[in-house]
Amino acid sequence: MNPYQHGEVYVTEDGAETDLDLGHYERFTSVTVGRRNNFTTGRKQSIRARADGVDIVITEIGGTVGDIESLPFLEAIRQLPYDVGRENVLYIHVTLVPYLGTAGELKTKPTQHSVNKLREIGIQPHILLCRTDRYLPPELKQKIALFCNLQKDEVITAKDVDTPYEVPLVFHKEGLDRLIVEQLRLQLGEPDLREWDSLVQRIKYPQHEATIALVGKYVGLKESYKSLTEALVHGGIESATRPIIHWVESEDIERRGAERVLADVDGIIVPGGFGGRGIEGKVSAIRHAREKQVPFLGLCLGMQCAVIEFARNVAGLRDANSSEFVPDGPTSVIDLMSDQRKVEEKGGTMRLGAYPCVLEKGSRAHEAYGRTEVLERHRHRYEFNNAYRDRLTKHGLVLSGLSPDGRLVEIIELPHHPWFVATQFHPEFNSRPRRPHPLFQGFMRAALQHKVGG
Ligand code: GLN
Protein backbone atom coordinates (compact mmCIF):
# COMPACT_ATOMS: atom_id res chain seq x y z
CA MET A 1 0.00 0.00 0.00
CA ASN A 2 1.26 3.45 -0.86
CA PRO A 3 0.90 5.92 2.01
CA TYR A 4 0.26 8.70 -0.52
CA GLN A 5 -2.92 6.95 -1.60
CA HIS A 6 -4.05 5.24 1.59
CA GLY A 7 -2.77 7.23 4.55
CA GLU A 8 -1.26 5.07 7.25
CA VAL A 9 -1.06 1.31 6.95
CA TYR A 10 -2.34 0.23 10.35
CA VAL A 11 -1.12 -3.17 11.52
CA THR A 12 -3.38 -5.26 13.73
CA GLU A 13 -2.20 -7.68 16.36
CA ASP A 14 -2.98 -10.64 14.10
CA GLY A 15 -0.93 -9.12 11.30
CA ALA A 16 -3.48 -7.59 8.93
CA GLU A 17 -2.40 -4.48 7.02
CA THR A 18 -5.47 -2.27 7.27
CA ASP A 19 -6.87 1.22 6.96
CA LEU A 20 -5.96 3.84 9.57
CA ASP A 21 -9.57 4.01 10.76
CA LEU A 22 -9.04 0.75 12.61
CA GLY A 23 -6.36 2.56 14.61
CA HIS A 24 -8.94 5.10 15.70
CA TYR A 25 -11.28 2.32 16.81
CA GLU A 26 -8.54 0.76 18.93
CA ARG A 27 -7.60 4.09 20.48
CA PHE A 28 -11.16 5.06 21.35
CA THR A 29 -12.51 1.74 22.57
CA SER A 30 -10.59 -0.84 24.53
CA VAL A 31 -11.08 -3.56 21.94
CA THR A 32 -8.37 -5.17 19.87
CA VAL A 33 -9.44 -5.50 16.25
CA GLY A 34 -8.03 -7.85 13.66
CA ARG A 35 -8.14 -9.26 10.17
CA ARG A 36 -11.86 -10.08 10.52
CA ASN A 37 -12.73 -6.43 11.14
CA ASN A 38 -11.54 -5.21 7.76
CA PHE A 39 -12.87 -6.43 4.45
CA THR A 40 -12.65 -4.95 1.03
CA THR A 41 -15.50 -6.68 -0.76
CA GLY A 42 -19.03 -5.94 0.36
CA ARG A 43 -21.14 -8.84 1.53
CA LYS A 44 -23.76 -8.69 4.20
CA GLN A 45 -22.73 -12.22 5.14
CA SER A 46 -19.43 -10.71 6.25
CA ILE A 47 -21.21 -8.25 8.49
CA ARG A 48 -23.44 -10.98 9.91
CA ALA A 49 -20.50 -13.30 10.54
CA ARG A 50 -18.88 -10.52 12.62
CA ALA A 51 -22.09 -10.22 14.64
CA ASP A 52 -21.80 -13.68 16.09
CA GLY A 53 -21.79 -13.39 19.88
CA VAL A 54 -21.75 -9.59 20.07
CA ASP A 55 -24.54 -7.12 20.86
CA ILE A 56 -23.73 -4.32 18.44
CA VAL A 57 -21.80 -4.28 15.20
CA ILE A 58 -20.55 -0.91 13.97
CA THR A 59 -19.99 -1.04 10.23
CA GLU A 60 -18.23 1.90 8.68
CA ILE A 61 -18.40 2.31 4.93
CA GLY A 62 -15.64 4.54 3.65
CA GLY A 63 -15.63 6.73 0.57
CA THR A 64 -18.34 9.01 -0.78
CA VAL A 65 -21.92 8.03 -1.58
CA GLY A 66 -22.13 7.68 -5.35
CA ASP A 67 -18.62 6.22 -5.78
CA ILE A 68 -19.02 3.04 -7.78
CA GLU A 69 -16.61 1.13 -5.56
CA SER A 70 -18.74 1.63 -2.47
CA LEU A 71 -22.00 0.51 -4.11
CA PRO A 72 -21.78 -3.19 -3.17
CA PHE A 73 -21.14 -2.22 0.46
CA LEU A 74 -24.15 0.10 0.52
CA GLU A 75 -26.29 -2.57 -1.10
CA ALA A 76 -25.16 -4.99 1.61
CA ILE A 77 -26.30 -2.67 4.40
CA ARG A 78 -29.50 -1.82 2.55
CA GLN A 79 -30.49 -5.50 2.66
CA LEU A 80 -29.56 -5.97 6.29
CA PRO A 81 -32.95 -4.97 7.81
CA TYR A 82 -34.59 -7.84 5.90
CA ASP A 83 -32.36 -10.29 7.76
CA VAL A 84 -32.18 -8.84 11.24
CA GLY A 85 -35.34 -6.73 11.46
CA ARG A 86 -35.84 -3.08 10.65
CA GLU A 87 -35.74 -2.03 14.31
CA ASN A 88 -32.26 -3.48 14.69
CA VAL A 89 -30.53 -1.39 12.06
CA LEU A 90 -29.56 2.26 12.39
CA TYR A 91 -28.15 4.22 9.46
CA ILE A 92 -25.92 7.15 10.42
CA HIS A 93 -24.76 9.28 7.55
CA VAL A 94 -21.80 11.68 7.70
CA THR A 95 -22.16 14.78 5.53
CA LEU A 96 -20.50 18.13 5.07
CA VAL A 97 -21.90 21.54 6.04
CA PRO A 98 -19.26 24.02 4.85
CA TYR A 99 -19.06 27.58 6.09
CA LEU A 100 -18.54 30.08 3.27
CA GLY A 101 -16.53 32.94 4.68
CA THR A 102 -17.33 35.43 1.93
CA ALA A 103 -21.07 34.86 2.26
CA GLY A 104 -20.87 34.44 6.03
CA GLU A 105 -23.13 31.43 5.68
CA LEU A 106 -23.34 27.73 6.41
CA LYS A 107 -24.34 25.79 3.30
CA THR A 108 -26.77 22.88 3.44
CA LYS A 109 -26.60 21.96 -0.28
CA PRO A 110 -23.85 19.30 -0.05
CA THR A 111 -25.80 17.58 2.73
CA GLN A 112 -29.06 17.61 0.78
CA HIS A 113 -27.34 16.18 -2.30
CA SER A 114 -25.58 13.48 -0.39
CA VAL A 115 -28.74 12.39 1.42
CA ASN A 116 -30.64 12.34 -1.89
CA LYS A 117 -27.94 10.16 -3.40
CA LEU A 118 -28.21 7.76 -0.48
CA ARG A 119 -32.00 7.60 -0.80
CA GLU A 120 -31.66 6.81 -4.53
CA ILE A 121 -29.69 3.76 -3.47
CA GLY A 122 -32.54 2.86 -1.15
CA ILE A 123 -31.25 3.97 2.23
CA GLN A 124 -32.99 6.61 4.35
CA PRO A 125 -30.56 7.69 7.07
CA HIS A 126 -31.87 7.82 10.64
CA ILE A 127 -29.26 10.28 11.89
CA LEU A 128 -27.04 12.82 10.16
CA LEU A 129 -23.61 13.75 11.46
CA CYS A 130 -22.83 17.11 9.91
CA ARG A 131 -19.13 17.85 9.61
CA THR A 132 -18.68 21.56 10.21
CA ASP A 133 -16.48 24.08 11.99
CA ARG A 134 -19.20 25.53 14.26
CA TYR A 135 -22.36 24.45 16.07
CA LEU A 136 -25.35 24.38 13.73
CA PRO A 137 -28.07 26.81 14.83
CA PRO A 138 -31.57 25.29 15.41
CA GLU A 139 -33.07 26.90 12.27
CA LEU A 140 -30.43 25.29 10.13
CA LYS A 141 -30.97 21.90 11.72
CA GLN A 142 -34.70 22.40 11.09
CA LYS A 143 -34.05 23.14 7.43
CA ILE A 144 -31.79 20.11 6.95
CA ALA A 145 -34.29 17.92 8.82
CA LEU A 146 -37.14 19.03 6.59
CA PHE A 147 -35.29 18.30 3.36
CA CYS A 148 -33.95 14.98 4.60
CA ASN A 149 -37.08 13.48 6.18
CA LEU A 150 -35.73 13.71 9.72
CA GLN A 151 -36.55 15.26 13.07
CA LYS A 152 -34.50 18.27 14.12
CA ASP A 153 -32.74 16.43 16.93
CA GLU A 154 -31.62 13.74 14.47
CA VAL A 155 -29.38 16.32 12.81
CA ILE A 156 -26.18 16.32 14.85
CA THR A 157 -23.31 18.81 14.74
CA ALA A 158 -19.99 17.04 14.17
CA LYS A 159 -17.86 20.05 14.92
CA ASP A 160 -14.11 20.32 14.28
CA VAL A 161 -12.24 20.00 17.57
CA ASP A 162 -8.67 20.50 18.81
CA THR A 163 -8.09 16.86 19.63
CA PRO A 164 -9.99 13.87 18.25
CA TYR A 165 -10.56 12.70 21.83
CA GLU A 166 -12.97 15.60 22.26
CA VAL A 167 -15.33 14.18 19.64
CA PRO A 168 -17.32 11.94 22.02
CA LEU A 169 -17.84 14.94 24.32
CA VAL A 170 -19.28 17.05 21.50
CA PHE A 171 -21.53 14.19 20.44
CA HIS A 172 -22.74 13.78 23.99
CA LYS A 173 -23.56 17.48 24.15
CA GLU A 174 -25.50 17.13 20.89
CA GLY A 175 -27.44 14.16 22.29
CA LEU A 176 -26.14 11.58 19.85
CA ASP A 177 -25.56 8.87 22.47
CA ARG A 178 -29.10 9.20 23.83
CA LEU A 179 -30.54 9.11 20.31
CA ILE A 180 -28.71 5.90 19.41
CA VAL A 181 -29.67 4.22 22.65
CA GLU A 182 -33.32 5.19 22.15
CA GLN A 183 -33.53 4.22 18.51
CA LEU A 184 -31.97 0.81 19.09
CA ARG A 185 -34.05 0.48 22.27
CA LEU A 186 -31.09 -0.43 24.44
CA GLN A 187 -31.39 -0.48 28.20
CA LEU A 188 -28.53 1.70 29.33
CA GLY A 189 -28.05 4.27 32.08
CA GLU A 190 -26.49 7.69 31.78
CA PRO A 191 -22.91 7.66 30.45
CA ASP A 192 -20.12 8.53 32.88
CA LEU A 193 -17.74 10.69 30.90
CA ARG A 194 -15.72 12.11 33.83
CA GLU A 195 -12.58 10.12 33.17
CA TRP A 196 -12.69 10.86 29.46
CA ASP A 197 -13.36 14.52 30.13
CA SER A 198 -10.35 14.84 32.40
CA LEU A 199 -8.20 13.06 29.80
CA VAL A 200 -9.27 15.62 27.20
CA GLN A 201 -8.50 18.48 29.60
CA ARG A 202 -5.01 17.11 30.18
CA ILE A 203 -4.36 16.78 26.47
CA LYS A 204 -5.74 20.22 25.62
CA TYR A 205 -4.10 22.19 28.40
CA PRO A 206 -0.67 20.70 29.24
CA GLN A 207 1.88 22.64 31.30
CA HIS A 208 4.83 22.13 28.97
CA GLU A 209 5.72 21.72 25.33
CA ALA A 210 8.60 19.87 23.71
CA THR A 211 9.66 20.05 20.07
CA ILE A 212 9.98 16.65 18.46
CA ALA A 213 11.62 16.26 15.05
CA LEU A 214 10.06 13.55 12.94
CA VAL A 215 12.60 12.69 10.28
CA GLY A 216 10.83 10.95 7.43
CA LYS A 217 10.21 10.65 3.77
CA TYR A 218 6.46 11.07 3.56
CA VAL A 219 6.32 14.14 5.70
CA GLY A 220 4.21 15.75 2.97
CA LEU A 221 1.52 13.37 4.05
CA LYS A 222 1.02 13.63 7.78
CA GLU A 223 -1.86 11.17 7.91
CA SER A 224 0.57 8.33 7.30
CA TYR A 225 2.08 8.98 10.74
CA LYS A 226 -1.24 9.07 12.57
CA SER A 227 -0.54 6.33 15.12
CA LEU A 228 2.89 7.78 15.79
CA THR A 229 1.73 11.34 16.42
CA GLU A 230 -1.14 10.05 18.58
CA ALA A 231 1.32 7.90 20.57
CA LEU A 232 3.41 11.03 21.21
CA VAL A 233 0.34 12.86 22.51
CA HIS A 234 -0.49 9.92 24.80
CA GLY A 235 3.15 9.66 25.88
CA GLY A 236 3.14 13.31 26.95
CA ILE A 237 0.06 13.10 29.19
CA GLU A 238 1.95 11.88 32.26
CA SER A 239 4.63 14.59 32.07
CA ALA A 240 2.01 17.20 31.05
CA THR A 241 3.95 17.83 27.85
CA ARG A 242 2.48 18.62 24.46
CA PRO A 243 4.58 17.35 21.56
CA ILE A 244 5.14 20.03 18.94
CA ILE A 245 5.93 18.05 15.82
CA HIS A 246 8.65 19.45 13.63
CA TRP A 247 8.27 17.64 10.29
CA VAL A 248 11.70 17.14 8.76
CA GLU A 249 12.35 15.75 5.28
CA SER A 250 15.41 13.55 5.67
CA GLU A 251 16.69 14.82 2.33
CA ASP A 252 16.72 18.30 3.81
CA ILE A 253 19.25 17.03 6.36
CA GLU A 254 21.32 15.64 3.50
CA ARG A 255 21.38 19.10 1.94
CA ARG A 256 21.75 21.34 4.98
CA GLY A 257 23.27 19.10 7.63
CA ALA A 258 21.78 17.72 10.86
CA GLU A 259 23.31 20.44 13.02
CA ARG A 260 21.40 23.18 11.20
CA VAL A 261 18.10 21.40 10.75
CA LEU A 262 17.91 19.86 14.23
CA ALA A 263 19.46 22.69 16.26
CA ASP A 264 16.44 23.49 18.45
CA VAL A 265 14.66 20.19 18.92
CA ASP A 266 14.13 18.37 22.22
CA GLY A 267 13.76 14.91 20.76
CA ILE A 268 14.29 13.09 17.47
CA ILE A 269 12.23 10.28 15.99
CA VAL A 270 13.14 8.27 12.93
CA PRO A 271 10.00 6.31 12.03
CA GLY A 272 9.40 3.29 9.84
CA GLY A 273 9.71 3.36 6.09
CA PHE A 274 10.70 1.51 2.96
CA GLY A 275 13.34 2.15 0.31
CA GLY A 276 16.68 3.86 0.32
CA ARG A 277 15.73 7.45 -0.45
CA GLY A 278 16.65 9.77 2.40
CA ILE A 279 18.53 7.10 4.35
CA GLU A 280 21.74 9.13 4.70
CA GLY A 281 19.77 12.03 6.17
CA LYS A 282 18.23 9.70 8.73
CA VAL A 283 21.65 8.29 9.63
CA SER A 284 22.99 11.85 10.10
CA ALA A 285 20.01 12.74 12.31
CA ILE A 286 20.74 9.71 14.50
CA ARG A 287 24.43 10.56 14.72
CA HIS A 288 23.44 14.04 15.86
CA ALA A 289 21.11 12.55 18.51
CA ARG A 290 23.79 10.18 19.76
CA GLU A 291 26.63 12.70 19.89
CA LYS A 292 24.66 15.68 21.15
CA GLN A 293 22.74 13.62 23.73
CA VAL A 294 19.34 14.49 22.24
CA PRO A 295 16.60 11.97 23.19
CA PHE A 296 16.07 9.54 20.33
CA LEU A 297 13.43 6.98 19.45
CA GLY A 298 13.91 4.79 16.39
CA LEU A 299 11.03 2.76 15.01
CA CYS A 300 11.56 -0.18 12.66
CA LEU A 301 13.50 1.40 9.79
CA GLY A 302 14.57 3.94 12.42
CA MET A 303 16.17 1.15 14.43
CA GLN A 304 17.84 -0.27 11.35
CA CYS A 305 19.31 3.17 10.61
CA ALA A 306 20.51 3.45 14.22
CA VAL A 307 22.35 0.15 13.85
CA ILE A 308 23.92 1.36 10.60
CA GLU A 309 24.98 4.63 12.22
CA PHE A 310 26.51 2.90 15.24
CA ALA A 311 28.33 0.36 13.07
CA ARG A 312 29.80 3.09 10.87
CA ASN A 313 30.70 5.75 13.39
CA VAL A 314 31.36 3.83 16.60
CA ALA A 315 32.34 0.30 15.61
CA GLY A 316 34.44 1.41 12.64
CA LEU A 317 32.51 -0.52 9.97
CA ARG A 318 32.68 2.26 7.38
CA ASP A 319 30.61 0.46 4.71
CA ALA A 320 27.84 -0.63 7.03
CA ASN A 321 24.42 -0.62 5.37
CA SER A 322 21.23 -2.60 4.93
CA SER A 323 20.89 -5.08 2.08
CA GLU A 324 17.57 -3.38 1.36
CA PHE A 325 19.56 -0.39 0.04
CA VAL A 326 22.83 -2.07 -1.08
CA PRO A 327 21.78 -5.59 -2.07
CA ASP A 328 25.16 -7.29 -2.10
CA GLY A 329 27.13 -4.87 0.00
CA PRO A 330 30.24 -5.90 1.96
CA THR A 331 28.83 -5.03 5.41
CA SER A 332 25.10 -5.69 5.66
CA VAL A 333 24.46 -5.09 9.36
CA ILE A 334 20.76 -5.22 8.45
CA ASP A 335 19.89 -8.17 6.26
CA LEU A 336 17.26 -10.73 5.33
CA MET A 337 17.29 -13.78 7.59
CA SER A 338 18.47 -16.87 5.73
CA ASP A 339 15.03 -18.51 5.87
CA GLN A 340 13.48 -15.38 4.37
CA ARG A 341 15.92 -15.33 1.47
CA LYS A 342 14.20 -18.32 -0.08
CA VAL A 343 10.93 -16.43 -0.39
CA GLU A 344 11.97 -13.66 -2.69
CA GLU A 345 8.55 -12.51 -3.77
CA LYS A 346 7.74 -9.06 -2.39
CA GLY A 347 5.31 -9.03 0.49
CA GLY A 348 5.65 -12.75 1.03
CA THR A 349 8.45 -12.39 3.53
CA MET A 350 7.10 -9.59 5.63
CA ARG A 351 7.07 -10.21 9.39
CA LEU A 352 3.58 -8.99 10.29
CA GLY A 353 1.60 -8.71 13.51
CA ALA A 354 2.37 -9.27 17.18
CA TYR A 355 5.49 -11.13 18.33
CA PRO A 356 6.79 -11.58 21.88
CA CYS A 357 9.97 -9.86 22.97
CA VAL A 358 12.04 -10.60 26.07
CA LEU A 359 13.67 -7.63 27.78
CA GLU A 360 17.13 -7.46 29.30
CA LYS A 361 16.86 -6.89 33.05
CA GLY A 362 18.08 -3.48 34.15
CA SER A 363 17.90 -2.01 30.64
CA ARG A 364 16.07 1.21 29.94
CA ALA A 365 13.41 -0.70 28.00
CA HIS A 366 12.87 -3.04 30.96
CA GLU A 367 12.66 -0.11 33.32
CA ALA A 368 10.13 1.66 31.10
CA TYR A 369 7.86 -1.35 30.56
CA GLY A 370 8.25 -2.64 34.12
CA ARG A 371 7.98 -6.18 32.74
CA THR A 372 10.33 -8.74 31.23
CA GLU A 373 8.18 -9.88 28.32
CA VAL A 374 6.08 -7.78 25.94
CA LEU A 375 4.06 -8.30 22.79
CA GLU A 376 4.56 -5.79 19.98
CA ARG A 377 3.45 -5.41 16.35
CA HIS A 378 5.78 -5.79 13.40
CA ARG A 379 5.75 -4.89 9.72
CA HIS A 380 9.12 -5.38 8.08
CA ARG A 381 11.23 -7.71 6.05
CA TYR A 382 14.79 -7.05 7.19
CA GLU A 383 16.44 -7.84 10.54
CA PHE A 384 19.53 -7.09 12.61
CA ASN A 385 22.31 -9.29 11.19
CA ASN A 386 23.54 -11.59 13.97
CA ALA A 387 26.98 -11.88 12.35
CA TYR A 388 27.65 -8.38 13.73
CA ARG A 389 26.31 -8.87 17.24
CA ASP A 390 29.69 -9.30 18.94
CA ARG A 391 31.37 -6.49 17.12
CA LEU A 392 28.61 -3.99 17.93
CA THR A 393 27.98 -4.99 21.53
CA LYS A 394 31.75 -4.89 22.21
CA HIS A 395 31.59 -1.21 21.27
CA GLY A 396 28.76 -0.57 23.70
CA LEU A 397 25.52 -1.22 21.84
CA VAL A 398 23.02 -2.87 24.19
CA LEU A 399 20.60 -5.41 22.72
CA SER A 400 17.89 -4.93 25.30
CA GLY A 401 15.08 -6.87 23.62
CA LEU A 402 15.29 -10.23 21.85
CA SER A 403 12.81 -12.76 20.53
CA PRO A 404 12.24 -15.55 23.10
CA ASP A 405 14.55 -17.91 21.17
CA GLY A 406 17.23 -15.21 21.19
CA ARG A 407 17.59 -15.16 17.39
CA LEU A 408 16.02 -11.82 16.55
CA VAL A 409 17.11 -8.43 17.88
CA GLU A 410 13.98 -6.45 18.76
CA ILE A 411 15.30 -3.48 20.77
CA ILE A 412 18.66 -1.69 20.89
CA GLU A 413 19.68 1.09 23.25
CA LEU A 414 22.68 3.07 24.38
CA PRO A 415 23.63 3.52 28.01
CA HIS A 416 25.33 6.84 28.89
CA HIS A 417 22.72 8.70 26.91
CA PRO A 418 19.58 10.41 28.30
CA TRP A 419 17.30 8.32 26.05
CA PHE A 420 18.43 6.40 23.01
CA VAL A 421 16.10 3.48 22.32
CA ALA A 422 15.13 1.92 19.02
CA THR A 423 12.76 -0.92 18.26
CA GLN A 424 12.39 -3.31 15.34
CA PHE A 425 8.65 -3.30 16.04
CA HIS A 426 6.10 -0.47 15.93
CA PRO A 427 5.16 0.43 19.52
CA GLU A 428 2.91 3.24 18.23
CA PHE A 429 0.23 0.70 17.29
CA ASN A 430 -0.14 -0.29 20.94
CA SER A 431 -0.54 3.16 22.42
CA ARG A 432 -3.94 4.27 23.74
CA PRO A 433 -4.88 7.57 25.39
CA ARG A 434 -5.87 5.69 28.54
CA ARG A 435 -2.86 3.38 28.27
CA PRO A 436 0.06 5.40 26.88
CA HIS A 437 2.94 3.33 25.58
CA PRO A 438 5.85 3.17 28.08
CA LEU A 439 8.50 3.86 25.43
CA PHE A 440 6.70 6.99 24.24
CA GLN A 441 6.17 8.03 27.83
CA GLY A 442 9.87 7.62 28.59
CA PHE A 443 10.83 9.45 25.41
CA MET A 444 8.53 12.41 26.14
CA ARG A 445 9.82 12.63 29.69
CA ALA A 446 13.40 12.71 28.36
CA ALA A 447 12.44 15.35 25.77
CA LEU A 448 10.98 17.59 28.47
CA GLN A 449 14.11 17.05 30.56
CA HIS A 450 16.23 18.03 27.57
CA LYS A 451 14.26 21.21 27.14
CA VAL A 452 14.34 22.19 30.80
CA GLY A 453 17.93 21.11 31.38
CA GLY A 454 19.41 22.28 28.08
N1 GLN B 1 12.11 -1.35 5.14
C1 GLN B 1 12.44 -2.01 6.37
C2 GLN B 1 12.16 -3.50 6.30
O1 GLN B 1 11.43 -3.95 5.45
C3 GLN B 1 11.70 -1.38 7.52
C4 GLN B 1 10.20 -1.48 7.43
C5 GLN B 1 9.48 -0.53 8.35
O2 GLN B 1 10.04 0.45 8.84
N2 GLN B 1 8.21 -0.76 8.59
O3 GLN B 1 12.67 -4.26 7.10
- In the CATH hierarchy, the architecture of the largest domain is 3-Layer(aba) Sandwich
Shape annotation:
elongated
**pLDDT < 50 stretches:** none
Summing up helix and strand content along with how strands pair, one would put the structural category as: alpha/beta
Placed side by side, the strands forming the largest sheet appear as 9-8-10-11-19-18-17-14-15
Amount of beta strand: 15-25%
Question: Could you characterize the architecture of this molecule?
Answer:
This protein has helices spanning 3-6, 21-28, 44-50, 71-84, 109-121, 138-148, 167-173, 176-183, 194-204, 226-237, 250-256, 258-261, 279-291, 301-313, 338-341, 364-369, 389-394, 438-453, and strands at 10-11, 17-18, 92-96, 99-100, 105-106, 127-132, 155-159, 208-216, 241-249, 267-270, 296-299, 321-322, 332-335, 351-359, 373-380, 383-384, 398-402, 409-413, 420-423. Helix content is 36%, strand content 20%. The two termini are 41 Å apart. With 454 residues, the protein is an alpha/beta fold. The mean pLDDT is 92. The longest helix is centred in the last third of the chain and has 16 residues, at 438-453. Helix 10 (226-237) packs across helix 18 (438-453) and helix 11 packs across helix 13. The strands form 5 sheets. A 9-stranded mixed β-sheet has the order 9-8-10-11-19-18-17-14-15, with helices on both faces. Strands 3-6-7 form a 3-stranded parallel β-sheet. It has 2 domains: 3-197, 3-Layer(aba) Sandwich (Rossmann fold), CATH 3.40.50; 208-453, Class I glutamine amidotransferase (GATase) domain (Rossmann fold). It is built from 18 helices and 19 strands. The radius of gyration is 25 Å and the shape is elongated. The structure holds glutamine (GLN). Residues 272-274, 300-301, 324, 379-382 line the site of glutamine.
